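User: For documentation purposes, I need each entry recorded in a consistent format: the amino acid sequence on its own, followed directly by the corresponding structure tokens. There are two entries in this batch. Please keep commentary to a minimum and don't merge the entries.

Assistant: Recorded as requested. Entry 1:
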Amino acid sequence: MKIQKAVITAAGRNQRHLPLQTLVDREGFPRSALNLLIEEITSAQIQDIGIVIAPGDEALFKESVDVTNAKLTFIEQDKPLGYGHAIHCAKSFVEGDPFLLMVSDHLYVSDSDASCARQLVNTAEKLGSSVSAVQATHEGKLTDFGAVGGTLSSGGKNLYAIDKILEKPTPTQAEQEILVPGLRMGHYLCFFGMHILTHKIFEILEELLKKKDAKPSLSDALQILAKQEQYLASIIQGRRYDLENRYGMLTAQMALALDGRHREEVLTQLVELLAESKHK
């Protein structure tokens, strides 16, 4: 399996502005969140990227991009029929190949020499199957993410064979249905915002979309996928930052700054800011 294409979903009415926001990158330059996400993808040696957008947004998105080593294709989601439908809009772009799927409202900081996307692509290409990136997440944040349950896989360290998926479960529901061996108490495997998926996902989404008033979620489709072919979860050595959260943009900015070349300068400014606020 070779991953040569990626899809970014950016058509959600409540999230579509987030990838256009400006942050300061690791080198100290102002960049759009979309640029940073595209660079995450190209770090995995993928240059062919489809971006699913709402009608009329193409000019705005093109204006926010300064990355030159990627080929971008803008794909309009003509009707707001949910996340599953947005993914299905990229079927023609993907052309039957396995692909990297990423959401547009997350940014990433790797704790490894390889980027988060590169880690996931390496795993999927080695094992030749669909793989979702996951992170051990405290139960207090479960309502922000999809979560998975499964068993340790023989494919390698930090790999799990998925058998159950819940969309933003309560802690009680998670405790009852998706306990995972080896995790700390009160922690669960939650989606990281990136997946490697085979073309099978489009067949599943097509069937779900045939239902009356259907707005299938990705979790709905992935639950079916887990029953039809090998589908794994891989713990990524890194951190995800959800821009949609309260102070999400601020938290992501600080994470990027502390991972960059001006770390000491940023730390000094933070200490000064804390000292000033303490005296008010």
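Entry 2:
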Amino acid sequence: MPNYVVLNTESHRNLSVITEYSNEYGDNTSNIMTFPTEFGDVQSEYPILFRKNPESGEFSSFAMLGFGANENLFLNDRKWSARYVPAAIAKGPFLIGFQNQEAIGKSKNEPVINIDMEDPRVSYDNKGERLFDEEEKQTPYVEKMITILSGIHQGIEFSKLMFEAFIEHDLIEPVTIDVQFNNGEKVQLQGCYTVHEEKLKSLSGQALEKLNQSGFLQAAFLVIASLNNIKKLVDMKNQKLV
């Protein structure tokens, strides 16, 4: 069970974080949440698809990593075989939290970095990346995590607005993914959604301009382009079968 605490020098000056990727760290997943703020990097490596929460009806984005429940085709000898690691994986045991702070007589929730002390990547014997240096300053690794967490935080807000716009223009359509591997095995993935390319093309100039100004038009094109990576995943699967 996760045990998130606020990262601080007093308690965590001697901590390190193992930066390898492995099944034991929960990296053996066939999909991982992704955010529009990273679509430009994600679409060069992974298919980007949407899913719908059956209870709330809300949409979210995910990067496809494999075809089976616990299959991550990018895991290779404790390394990640792609140029870009999705932020939800790259963040490791960290999470953005909010802490109530008093400032000039007013109370305000400020973002803080939390670390999961139960995460198996957290090390007490100098394995991996140190969190603080000898002067108790944050290391470049922590600064990198702050950048990643900030991108996730911004991406969550951007994602809500993006899907509102997509729904407004009826741009989301269900898609079924059918693939067959060299050994004859067939897989069908249902419950996925993507951007309706034809409806996107038929939008009025005013609607397209509005989407473009918001950054949602670029996101839509990146999602469509990313679907070409399904063939790449099929090729990776075939190589592993050999």
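Summary note for entry 2:
The radius of gyration is 20 Å.
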